[in-house]
Amino acid sequence: MATELITLAGHEQVVFCTDPDTGLRAIIALHDTALGPGLGGTRFHPYASMDQALADVLRLSRAMTSKNAVAGLDHGGGKGVILGDPNRDKTPELLRAYGRFVESLGGRYVTACDVGTYVADMDVVGESTRWATGRSPERGGAGDSSVLTAYGVFQGMRAAAQHVWGEPTLAGRRVGIAGVGKVGRRLTDQLLEDGAQVVVTDVNPDAVRDLVARHPSVCALNDVDDLVREELDVYSPNALGGALDEVTVDLLRARIVCGGANNQLVSEGHGGTAERLRERGITYAPDFLVNAGGVIQVSDELHGFDMERARRRTATIFDHTLEVLRSADAEDVTPAVAADRLAERRIAAGGPRPWLPAGEHRDT
Ligand SMILES: NC(=O)c1ccc[n+]([C@@H]2O[C@H](COP(=O)([O-])OP(=O)(O)OC[C@H]3O[C@@H](n4cnc5c(N)ncnc54)[C@H](O)[C@@H]3O)[C@@H](O)[C@H]2O)c1
């Protein structure tokens, strides 16, 4: 089962890591390093089995190859998963053991935060490897990546507005935000500043209460079902994956979908949700394109973190989104396909695989 999965997905390298002393069980997957070292976060999750963890890390690392390529980063796709309950099994010793496995790859894999891992965890992982990003500013890190994730989503949304309405602004538009956690609430700040009306929903009532206390003009709805049915110009998923299924797409009244959540399309590829959106005349700004600000932020850490440099780079999400939406129209394909093609072109122009750290290339 394992070898079949790996071969099918075309991964360069998959490393199974175990450390009996700390109970660590982890997998690191490098999908494609044509553009440079694999970069992607580490997910800490109570997987039901090793096979389930493997399937997840293969899928996630592959998605990072595309995300890093369209973001214009010199990084390939990589991802790590640690098997276990982060609330019960996460210890400093286990994180340091994981860091040693990351270090053992000599810089071919660069890690960061993901679901179940936080800035403080990357500080600990970083005690045993040079290749941990998303650390705290006190340790020279980039800190909370949602800052530039939200900024990038805002840039993607401005580009979609330019494409659809001819103006790169959300002023006077009604934007619905599903999920006002770290990304959604920062996005709300920027939209309000731009002059948009914002409608939100979140399963966590505290998150909504805090936001409305800060911004009394924000309107809160009961749940995502209500938000989807609302008269909106833009719908922005910023909670969990799988936000766009067929039912949701059929109910949507917005002209644009653009949000930070990962893996929004429930059904990918031919006949999938992206095509349904297109049939309904809804412009979809691909998630992995517009939410790349976070990975841009943490990648900057490898060069001595500079927030302004990372912000300038994230601002290019505006141009990339516009380019993708225009080429989707020109090539008569969905924006998801156009973004994949952009990634493929960049990867095809990359170097030989596997990428090796400087000074370790060998001519044979
Ligand atoms: N933080 C980043 O840098 C980053 C980068 C890229 C992608 N993303 C993606 O963006 C999304 C949001 O990330 P985040 O860091 O803000 O996470 P978060 O956990 O801070 O916020 C998510 C919010 O969504 C809410 N939520 C969960 N289920 C919901 C539902 N069914 N309906 C309404 N609200 C619901 C939660 O209560 C929470 O407030 C995730 O999909 C994440 O994978 C985040």
UniProtKB/TrEMBL annotation:
Task: Report domain Glutamate/phenylalanine/leucine/valine/L-tryptophan dehydrogenase C-terminal positions.
Answer: 143-351
Q: Tell me if Transmembrane is a UniProt keyword of this record.
A: no
The UniProt keyword set, sorted, is: NAD, Oxidoreductase
Q: Which InterPro entries match?
A: Aminoacid_DH-like_N_sf, Glu/Leu/Phe/Val/Trp_DH, Glu/Leu/Phe/Val/Trp_DH_C, Glu/Leu/Phe/Val/Trp_DH_dimer, Glu/Leu/Phe/Val_DH_AS, Glu/Phe/Leu/Val/Trp_DH_bac/arc, NAD(P)-bd_dom_sf
A Pfam family of this chain: ELFV_dehydrog_N
- Please, which domain of life does this record's source organism belong to? Bacteria
Hey, which family's this protein in? Belongs to the Glu/Leu/Phe/Val dehydrogenases family.
What is this protein's record name? Glu/Leu/Phe/Val dehydrogenase dimerization domain-containing protein
Its taxonomic path starts at: Bacteria, Bacillati, Actinomycetota, Actinomycetes, Micrococcales
